[in-house]
Amino acid sequence: MSDPIEPTTSSSSSTRDPNPNPNPNPNPVSLIHPRREPFEHGLLPIPKLIITDPTQTLIPLKQTLLSNSPNLRVNSVALSESLQISHDHARLVLDTLASVLHSDSDPLVRSKLAEIDSAGADIHDLVLFLYIQSYKKLLPRTHKDSASVADVWPSTSAFDGYLSALSPLQLVRSNSRRFMPSQTDEEAHQLSYLQKHLANILSLLAEPVEGEGEGEESLVLTMERFEHLGFLIQFGDKGSEGIPLSQYAPFFANSDPDMPAVPVPATQVHDWILQNIASALEHISERAAPKENGPPSASDQDVAMADACPTSVKASPSARGPSFIEGISKSSLVKQASDLKGPSVKIVNDYTCIEVFSI
Predict the structure, then answer these.
(1) pLDDT tens-digit readout, 93-102
(2) Where is the composition biased (Low complexity) (predicted)?
C-alpha cells in the first residue's frame, strides 16, 4: 500500500527561491475523500434513472449523445428522448446536476434556471451522475428487537421495559450513537462503493487507442477526461482548494499547460486511485478504533433519578412561552392539557424528529 499522493507544483523558480517547492500544499498529507454533494444531494427518486447494468446502458448512451452533440453537451430535450423520461424529469436531472457539480466554472453551474437548457450538461459529467443513481445510502442499523422497529410511536413493545431504565436524554444519545450512521460511516461507505465500482466508472471516461484492439488494456484517459473524476472524489477534507485533481496524480502533475498531456492507461489510473482509497479507509479505521475502545464521555453518565422520569415536562418560566418536552421517547407522553403552559409545544432531543406544534 502506498502513501497518499501529494500534489506537486512546478519548480521553475527554484533557482531564485531557496525553497525547492515555493508553493507547497497547505495540507501536504492529503487523503482522498468522496465528494459528499453527489452522494447526499444528487440522488433522485426517478425509477428510470436506477439502472441495473450501468456500463451496458450508459456506454451506448454516452456514444449516442456524443455523436449527436458537437459541443459535447446535452439539453433536457435530448436527455428526455434518450432516457425516455418526461421533460420535467429531464429538467430536474439537469438542475440537480448543476447543484452538485464540482466545477464552479462549468456553464451549467453559472447559468440561471431559465438558461439551463441553453447551457446543457457535459456528457461525461452526466453519465457519472446517472451511474451513481444506483448508489444506496447507508441505512440506520436495525435494532435487535424487530418488533419495536415495526411499532408506531407511542405504542408500546417488549423493548420499552428496557428503555424505561434509561433517562430520556440517555435514550436519545444511545439511539443516535448506536443506530444512526455517522459522517465517518457514510464516508467509508461511499469510499467502498467507489472502490467496488471504479473500473466501471473509468470505462465511462476512457477511450480506446486506435490499433490496440479491444479490452481494458487498450483504454486510456486524457487529462481532460481524468478531471471529470473530480465530480466523485477530492483530496483533503475541503477539496482541492482550486488545485486541479490532475495535479495530485503523479502521471499528470506538472504537465506543460501549452502542450497536451500524454494519455494514461486506464489501468494505471485505476491502480493509483485504489491505493489512495485503501489508504483513506485504513486511516478511517485507525481513527475509529480509539473512539470504540475509549472511556464513555461525561454526557453518557447517569443523571439524577428525578430527571429520568419518562414523562417529565419542563415548562418555560414565562406563561406565554413554549413548553419544552425534553428527551421524549416511546414512553413519554403528555396526556393532560393542564400540563402545557403557553401557546406552543417544542419537542427537543427527540430521536426521530424535532418539531414545533401549535395548539
Answers:
(1) 999 999 999 9
(2) 7-18
